[in-house]
Design brief:
By secondary structure, the chain is α/β, with parallel strands linked by helices. It contains 18 helices and 13 strands.
């Protein structure tokens, strides 16, 4: 039975997945002590965190450079705690820039390393697979195609399915949710999901709001709701909304009730595209970073698209408006074209249903917990 493990997550999505995994591990291992880095959800699951994900949610290569001193301090302190606590194993959740370096240090200390939610080596930096093969003892993946990729490189890997399949469920009807927001049940509703990190909000939210303004000019009966992720600075969010002068209602958290109420969505690239796909809501993907980050990424990305929803589909089923294409008029024109066509809307819903099927079956966190428990028992 497991007694003490480290769990390390660096972003909001990792905090979410880490919390669900911790809950499943504790069901199998009563009394399990968990330590590490995470956010509110991991703490609620009983994890003692040395640092909060808010200190680590850094976007892009330039963001890492600007925060290098802080990251080094976190890294050093974490290693000190690991040596003091001597955990049975460490579970690293996504966040590869930090976690792969940590995996190498853990390997030196003979601490078993389980990686949950694989780095996106299929998209860029495939050379990282050498680091993974040398430093990671067990890889748990959430996309089926990742299993074959890792097996080809001799990595011990298991496909567990995607944990979002258990989470992506509304607990409020569309009618109740919209009425609570003071919105019409009859109007076409478009959701704006600008991301969960402050730098995303600064760059992407203005684009989405400007796009919404143009959509309303073409489709006057359309209403807009904006999702504000937990932990985002309320003042800066309000400042952007006021500056854009776009009529939109803000909803904080409640992601799945939010998506359930939408007929269509404009979504920042990331986990939200998968959540929207699982809820089978037609969407457009929007993303923009600094010019330098984009230039570096262009040299590294190996795929013709960036959205996780398109990666899971194996083809571009959702239009992407990235960097120089992330222009409100282009986005709005495509959105209006889809919104005005029931054929296009139903076709996209059908494609999204296939994506949901490709993600496996519900119960991913439980399966991952069982594999981890057995793996550590076999290696201790």
């Amino acid at each position: 039975m497991l007694k003490k493990i480290m769990v390390i997550a660096g972003e909001a999505s990792g905090d979410f997945h880490g919390a669900r995994l911790i809950q499943a591990l504790k069901e199998l291992n009563p009394g399990l002590k968990t330590l590490g880095i995470g956010g509110q959800q991991m703490r609620q699951a009983g994890c003692r965190t040395y640092f909060d994900i808010a200190e680590l949610a850094i976007i892009g290569f330039t963001g890492v450079l600007k925060n290098l001193k802080k990251l080094k301090q976190v890294f050093t302190r974490l290693l000190q705690e690991i040596e003091k606590e001597a955990p049975q194993a460490a579970i690293l959740v996504d966040y590869p820039g930090f976690n792969l370096k940590l995996a190498q240090e853990l390997k030196k200390r003979n601490i078993p390393v389980i990686y949950y939610i694989s780095p996106q080596i299929w998209a860029w930096w495939r050379t990282r697979i050498k680091t993974i093969r040398g430093a990671v003892d067990k890889m748990l993946v959430v996309f089926k195609f990742e299993q074959a990729l890792y097996q080809g490189y001799g990595v011990d890997v298991s496909f567990v399915g995607h944990p979002l399949l258990d989470a992506a469920q509304a607990d409020s009807s569309r009618t109740d949710f919209l009425q609570k927001l003071g919105l019409s049940v009859q109007k076409q509703t478009v959701g704006l999901l600008p991301g969960s990190r402050q730098m995303e909000i600064e760059r992407i939210l203005p684009i989405l709001l400007q796009s919404a303004k143009i959509i309303r000019q073409k489709l006057p009966q359309t209403q807009f709701i904006v999702l504000k992720a937990q932990g985002l600075d309320t003042a800066s969010f309000a400042r952007i909304l006021k500056a854009q002068k776009t009529e939109a209602t803000v909803c904080e958290n409640q992601t799945y009730n939010f998506l359930n109420a939408c007929d269509f969505a404009l979504v920042a690239s990331g986990t939200a595209t998968l959540e929207t796909a699982i809820m089978q809501r037609p969407m457009l993907l929007v993303y923009k970073v600094s010019f330098l980050n984009w230039l570096i990424a262009r040299c590294l990305i190996r795929l013709p698209f960036i959205g996780l929803v398109n990666v899971a589909a194996g083809e571009k089923i959702v239009p992407e408006f990235v960097q120089f294409q992330a222009r409100p008029r282009l986005i709005a024109e495509q959105a209006v074209e889809i919104l005005a066509s029931q054929t296009k809307l139903s076709g996209m819903r059908s494609d999204l249903a296939k994506v949901r099927t490709n993600l496996g079956s519900p119960g991913a966190s439980r399966r991952a917990a069982e594999i981890i428990t057995n793996f550590i028992a076999d290696n201790n």
